[in-house]
Amino acid sequence: IHMAWKLNAGMLGAADVEHAGTYLAFSLNPYYSRCLDAVNLEKRRAQGMKIIVVDPRVTPAVKRLADIHLQNLPGTDGAVALGMAHLLIRNGWIDRDYIQNYVYGFEAFSRYVEQFDPDTVERISGVKRGELCRAVELLAANMPVAVHESVSPIVHHRNGMQNYRAMTALSAITGCYDRVGGTRPRVNTFSHQTAG
């Protein structure tokens, strides 16, 4: 995770849940770990924040929080994220000003994600074409998006770093990195995590 964030943004990021319109979570399960996050997510959902969970498992978070559950095959989180990027770019649901000022390599990335159309993503990940499209529409209609990537299950695959890079790219193309309600840079210390 640290290497992927360092490559993409220079430092780790953290989801700004308090101001997000959509919370896009890869492998989220705060009911078993980080229980204080669950309380805050429930509160924000009641206030209207949308939650999309990408997870092979049907967890308590999926049952209690998800507006949409994209149930992917293990290790295919990156393909799902690249498919989301494909749809965001194709539909013009990106922040061109932000990209022009702050994103390096967008044209190459845009060409790369052309191959991740919804049918291809369904073949790779098992996520149904219609569900992927519905999730991206929900995300685009409820900006800004705060992206959460779980540390453990995603990196348990040999393509883990690339999965993370694909996920963090969503913050960049939507103009939600280092923005209120998006993914904010954070500097960690050994005492940064709340007990619970």
Structure description:
The chain is an alpha/beta fold and 196 residues long. It has 9 helices and 6 strands; from the N terminus they run H-E-E-H-E-H-E-H-H-H-H-H-E-H-E. A 4-stranded parallel beta sheet has the order 4-3-2-5. Strands 1-6 form a two-stranded antiparallel sheet. Helix 7 (118-125) crosses helix 8 (129-141).
Largest sheet: 4 strands, parallel
Computed over alpha carbons, the radius of gyration is 15 Å
Total helices: the number is 9
Helical/strand content category: alpha/beta
What are the low-pLDDT stretches, counting only 5+ consecutive residues below 50? Answer: 1-9
Strand residue percentage = 5-15%
In one word, what is the shape?
globular
**Alpha-carbon distance between the two ends:** 22 Å
DSSP helix fraction: 40-55%
What attributes does this structure have?
196 residues, two-stranded antiparallel ribbon, alpha/beta, disordered N terminus, 9 helices
What does this entry show, briefly?
By secondary structure, this protein is α/β, with parallel strands linked by helices. The chain has 9 helices and 6 strands, in the order αββαβαβαααααβαβ.
Q: What's the SSE blueprint?
A:
Blueprint: H1 2-9, E1 13-15, E2 22-26, H2 35-46, E3 50-54, H3 60-65, E4 68-70, H4 77-90, H5 96-102, H6 106-113, H7 118-125, H8 129-141, E5 145-149, H9 160-173, E6 183-185
Parallel strand pairs: 2-3, 2-5, 3-4
Antiparallel strand pairs: 1-6
